[in-house]
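Researcher: Let's try something more involved. This one mixes different molecule types, so please make sure each is placed in the same coordinate frame as the others.
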Amino acid sequence: MKNLNINFSGIDWLPDEEMEQFTDEAFFACDTLLKGNGPGSEYTGWVDLPEYYDREEFERIRAAASKIRRESQVLIVCGIGGSYLGAAAALDFLKGTMHNLKIRGGADPDEMEIYFVGNNLSPSYIGDIIDITGDRDFSLNVISKSGTTMETAAAFRIFRKILEDRYGEAAAERIYVTTDRSRGALKALAEKEGYETFVIPDNIGGRYSVLTAAGLLPIAAAGCDIDDLMAGAASMREELLSEPGELNEAIGYAGLRQQLYDWDKYIELFVSYDPDLKLFGEWLKQLFGESEGKENLGIFPASVSYTTDLHSLGQMVQEGERFFFETVINVESEPEHILIPEFENDFDGLKYLEGRPVGMLNQTAVDGVAMAHMDGDVPQVYIGIPDKSEFTLGELFYFFEFTCGVSAYVEGVNPFDQPGVEAYKKSIRELLDKYRK
Ligand code: PA5
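Model: All components are placed in one shared frame. Result:
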């Protein structure tokens, strides 16, 4: 693979014939995905999206992002699940987990703070974001394909009210709605109030929507290059669609995952060694969890941030129940500018650390942990990435969406529905009907 360094050698203990069986099944599943003759095929619009996206809307996204940056110091993004995780993961990946704090500290007055609401029902979380925003100018991007998601609807009401109290009729100029093209309550409201709207296309479900306006508007408002993001996804698409069976690493990875599942490795740990990738792990959890977890089947997707979690889950991974495999996403070019300073005495027996870049210690941890975990019967897929750029992120989004679609078809489920998510919503509605206000 041109830009990503994918390595399956951490799984080479599997017998060849079984590897071949699952690779063949994955190849067949890929064909099903691309021919659009599997369950849920009406939601495979994301496959061609990086090449055939709506250029006119893309320009409107860019223009809206510039307007938001001109008019506001803060952007509040309201959404949950696929209507939030991709954008939130992208901002941490591209700008770092500290981006809002750095801006508040005045590091760059041209940057804008971005906060995500509507992804929980915690009053203290919402209260903190109201406090942080204070009386500064802000804009609001509400994202919901259905327009009827409870968490999003609650937070939208709160921040819409603040905007309307503050700006009166001009509040409408600061509200941006990303929703279904023609249906749904949000679309109707936007038309009535004159909010600018963006589309999550009919043929793309929430967790595959990061490269639609659902992800692109907040990412562009943060000042990131959405052209490069789309170019990365397009390049990955071209690679995956033009590579034959055994050279196509998404097919290989999808087959391996299902092979490992068959061997009772039913928890996949998405591992990173950089806190900026933590939310990317959350995006992966939703992508694979909602796509594969149905009909009493599915690899359980979890994510860990090493080396931090080696001091909490490391024991379990090394010596607990042997049901894990790991998929490591590693940034291979770490900055070398932070060195461990040197002192005269070896006061703690760790003097061998001195003079070395922290990034080099981190890369050594990647290698050392791989050796220990593979010895401990934890197979490992390794995906090295050259940097934390928009292009690389676009490649990663597409690579994992493609792998997930293929893998779920190998498993034999519809990757594009989520019938189980309705159950909790129904119970909450019933309880709210019962409880008085
Ligand atoms: O992947 C999905 O479809 C879901 O996770 C949705 O993104 C999530 O439930 C939010 O739905 P909506 O965009 O309709 O508010």
